[in-house]
Sequence to fold (612 residues):
Amino acid sequence: MNPADHPTSDPREQPISRYELWAVVAITLLGAAVRFAFPSAMAIEHFDEGVYASNLLFPDQDYRYPDRHLYAPSLVPALIEWSIILFGDKGIAPMLPSLLFGTLTIPLMWWVGRQWFGPLSGIAAATLLSLSDFHIAFSRSALTDVPLCFWLLLAVYLFERTFRDLSWPTAIAAGFTTGLAWWTKYNGWLPLAISLSGLTAWSLFARRDERHFLRHLALWTVAAVTAVLVWSPYWLSLPNGYAEVARNHSQYLVGFAGWTSSSARQREALEAFNSPWSWGGLTIVAVGIGMLCGSKLTALSNLLVGRPSPIAWCVGAFLLMTTAIAAIAMTANRLLLMMAIYGLFVGIVVTAILCTNRWRHGNSEFTIAANPYTVQFIQFFFQRVDWLLAAWVIGLSVSIPLYSPYPRLALPWLVGVVLLISRWSDFRQIVEPTLEKRMQMWVFLVMAVIVALLFFPSIPIPADSFRFRCWETRSQFREIARDVTGDALKAAQAANQKPIQNTQAVLYVYAEPGLFFHLPADGLAVQPAGNLNFVDIEATRKLPTFLVTGPHAQRSKAFADEFAKRADQFELIASYPYDASDFVRLDDVSATQLRARRKPLEVRLYRVLVPE
Fold:
């Protein structure tokens, strides 16, 4: 059958079958289940989590943790505040915004993949993200990265629709969504960079009658202005302007000198989160791609040259091989690998053109006069979304390792890679327009792997193999806080000092917001501390005063130097062993060091001694 007689329909116009809808619902519910599972294991532990979740503890400071603006804009902290107000601070309320955004990103991935590449690509993208341990773990935190990924994905999708439809309202919507991303995290401007880079690259190769570069640029400008206007109220509210935020962020830059080591750390962190969930998602997609491509090598040959040939068979095998490489790339932040995969797009198209031996150059445009299979192939791989996706993945592959290797920074990159892998999943749409039977098989495959994964954890496996780090218990600070407050109150009662307005003691917490969040208790006034100057204030003489330190203080040379000068003013009351979760430790050590013997950590409680 000649595809010219049955041209591939626009993916947006393909109706959503009941099988596709069932698959999306099943994948989303599974994604929600693995994110909300074991709620008792979720608790505030990470430094930044403590900053975002503790704002309600500062009513006299406009409900803001000190210097909170240096860590993130106010959208996620505000959502956490309302979640705590509605549901209390003892359960999963602080994590609820990320849990909901993480779950909602799954159907959004399906919709974006479907709109860009077709129904099967949408299912593949949703499956990979739903079962991504890395995304699951951060969805179970109170950090800003998962909400950012939601807004980033939605904004880039809206930019693509803006350029495709030449729509001014959609441009405004893209800008508004980018503004929300900017309110979520300071790198929320990423959709602007991705869309402009992808648009510029595409315009260099697009046909003259499709280019409309000036109008596209005008649409992008409208979106950019809208984004700035949406973000400007927060920008203007910064107490010392954005320059202070930029100076704070600059201390985390490692530059090109540290790019290689930072990239290796990021790759190791991604690999450390592998478990049956991630491998299950990859299995679904790999088998699905095999079902799509395995039985159609002859059609693939026709696609390239119009007849079977050794070259076409080699290119077909090459496609399958690079699909496997792309799947591996999901857990490896390798810039050269990403560039190689996109280089393959160009190489395969050039191979197809040379095989036809029919091309000409004229009117300052490259015009292809080949069989309809080749034309469809070229159109399939050189859509505007390919250039947007290239700008997304390659741009972040270059820029992320320029920063300190915090694992969470790789989340936006991971979303782009998921779309990249799913890009290959709907290859069938250019050789077989009918998808109903394939969608039924895909639903069956999704259900089969889901059932297998639900029972897999009960199978005996070697120690430390396929660890479910996404479900790791992070409640130790919460448990330590109970002991610290109990010991502090006992020591305060033993001092026989008269309470002031029902406050029996003051507790200063040095550079440990994650612990600070859990410490407020009846009879205690809890304050964060960035130095030890509090020992000299008058209130220290009126009420028993204590200092709590944790791993951040123990690693800080500034604290060690200051504490050494005032050591005679502190008495150690108790110490509590603290085994930080891998989720937190990966900020400070590589995954290789993580597997080595753990360095013991502890939380210490000191009493401030008042001179006689």
Notes: Residues 475-608 form one domain. The chain has a mean pLDDT of 79.
